[in-house]
Design brief:
mainly alpha; 277 residues; 2 strands
């Protein structure tokens, strides 16, 4: 009697991820752009009120912060977290809150207030309560490399509304700083090469939040047939807002790819190859 040969069925997601990995960088970039555009089309027809995407973005950010709080309270360990990235986040949130109070107080102001409070709590825990587990040698990103250029760019390109020039520059500064605030965290993960689950979940939540935020602005421009651009101001400011949103998304896109690959591969710990950041 001949024993039938059993062929193992491979997970289609694993096959797809393997195929993408074998592609050259230009093809990967093209696939990322196509995937992003397809996602925008999907959201356009599924989400009727596109302003809800902005609320969903802030909710994802808050969820990421909650993951950090759970990690700090359960494990009493802050290894793998970037204090500098949290400080940059607190900085742009504080500036944005100030601008919101004097320029356009709304529900987003309350959401930002809650996010700022929890971010300050994370900073307090890392700096004063969990100092021994803080990987200061790995958190070596020079923050002035992003703060100074963002401030200089804000002086040059800012909204042209009727508000005070100080408020308009401050608003532009928080937009630019938000786009690059995650860079120190990515640097820490690149230095360690191994990312524990809670930190990976947090950064992935930031990636989703950045994408939803970017989708909100892009779809709002499409819905208003470009009128939103003139509502934001004139000259270089409207395109700079969109560029900042796109930059935020693409900064985290590479990490999100490896995160999804790790999850589908059943790995609890994310291992990053060289050159991700």
């Amino acid at each position: 009697m001949v024993t039938p040969i059993r062929t193992s069925k491979r997970n289609p997601i694993t096959v797809l991820v393997g195929w993408v990995r074998r592609q050259p960088p230009k093809v990967k970039a093209f696939l990322a752009v196509v995937t992003g555009m397809a996602s925008l089309v999907f959201l356009k027809f599924v989400v009727h009120d596109h302003d809800n995407l902005f609320v969903a973005s802030e909710a994802c950010h808050a969820l990421g912060i909650c993951v950090l709080i759970y990690k700090l309270m359960k494990e009493k360990n802050c290894a793998g977290l970037s204090l500098k990235s949290q400080e940059l986040t607190a900085m742009f949130l504080a500036v944005r809150l100030y601008c919101s109070y004097v320029m356009e107080y709304d529900i987003h102001t309350l959401l930002d207030s809650a996010t700022l409070i929890t971010t300050l709590w994370v900073i307090y825990m890392i700096r004063f309560k969990l100092t021994l587990s803080y990987m200061e040698d790995k958190d070596n990103f020079a923050t002035y490399y992003v703060v100074v250029p963002c401030l200089a760019l804000a002086f040059l390109v800012h909204p042209s509304t009727s508000h005070s020039i100080i408020h308009r520059i401050a608003w532009a500064f928080c937009v630019y700083l938000e786009a690059v605030s995650v860079l120190p965290q990515l640097q820490v993960m690149q230095n360690t090469k191994i990312v524990e689950p809670f930190t990976a979940h947090y950064v992935f939540a930031l990636g989703i939040a950045r994408f939803l935020n970017c989708a909100h602005w892009v779809l709002q421009v499409v819905d208003t047939r470009g009128r939103l651009l003139t509502a934001l101001g004139y000259a270089f400011w409207p395109p700079m807002v969109l560029i900042a949103e796109i930059v935020q998304t693409f900064i985290l896109a590479d990490f999100c790819y490896y995160y999804v690959k790790s999850v589908f591969g059943g790995q609890l710990v994310l291992r990053l190859p060289s050159g991700v950041v």
